[in-house]
Amino acid sequence: MASSRPKKFNSSFVKKFNFKDNRFKLQPDRKGFLCTCSFGEKDCQKEAINLLREYSEEKDNLLEDNTGTVEESTDIMDSMDNELQNLSNKDNSDWKKFTPLATGVGNCLFIGTTIEDPCELMYKILEDIENTKVQKTKFLLRMIPISITCKANLQSITTAFIDLFAKHFSSEPTTFAIMFNHRYNNSVKRDQIINELANQVASLGEHSVDLSGGAKKTIIVEVVKSVCCLSVVENYRRFCKFNLLSVCGRPEKRTAEGENGDSESSGSSPKVKKQEDEQVNTEETEKEHCESIEREKEIPDN
């Protein structure tokens, strides 16, 4: 009886499989939206994409533009075919505009995008929620616009911030704050990152630190495993740290059964609670470092 031999794997198939798998993972040189939830990651992902698609395009204007471009001499059937074709192409582009990317961290996902400025779209969503007080999501809690992603190390972070700082801090003096948070990564030193970024901003002009909640610019540093998500946003405190439920005036903690559920014990999971505690400690550390930098500026030269 012939002995059984182990089957050999096709190396080309393995490489092809890994390539397809990595396309849907969070990697450097991407932009989009960092989303968090307490439970229901799949539902959170659907809510995030639907919300972004809703505010990204004006469907009514699209229909009016397509109708106006049809020539009068065109046959009715041809005009209908053209309109359906244009709508189909537009829908396909909308689906490609927002792509979910896996982060490898529970209750934390990333929606990649091809739009030019994720912050502009995020401001539009938050301002509408703030004015209407209408709850747009049930599972999605926070949605932070990310201008660029890079590798989670000091050199990559400072290099990626060069263009962002030149865009936001090259004009008139302004106030800023630094918000640092990390998930499943202890190699990136918080103190080192804060000092380096604060000095980099100070070298661009007479900008001052404001951690009282009124800072005009907020530097976002979100480390997720081996990838760092970076952005410079405005009105961070006004929009309740980009918490959609808080912006519309709803409580953050909700039951798993929904708004009409009888259970009162739900809220955040232990992992999310731990991340929230780490963020509070992070903000306190940032305040101490930024205040020390301000004191050094105030010391007169002898």
Automatic annotation (TrEMBL):
Q: Which keywords does this chain's UniProt record carry? A: Coiled coil, RNA-binding
* All copies of domain THUMP, residue ranges: 128-234
Residue ranges for the region (Disordered) are 253-302
What residue ranges are annotated as transmembrane?
Answer: none
Coiled coil ranges: 45-90
User: Does the UniProt entry include the keyword Glycoprotein?
Assistant: no
A GO molecular-function descriptor:
RNA binding
- Record InterPro entries: THUMP_dom (IPR004114), THUMPD1-like (IPR040183)
Q: Name one GO biological process term.
A: tRNA modification
- Here the segments flagged for biased composition (Basic and acidic residues) are 284-302
Fetch the Gene3D superfamilies from UniProt.
THUMP superfamily
- What's this protein's family per the entry? Belongs to the THUMPD1 family.
Q: What is this protein called?
A: THUMP domain-containing protein 1 homolog isoform X1
Could you tell me which species this protein originates from? Sipha flava (yellow sugarcane aphid)
Lineage, uppermost ranks:
Eukaryota, Metazoa, Ecdysozoa, Arthropoda, Hexapoda
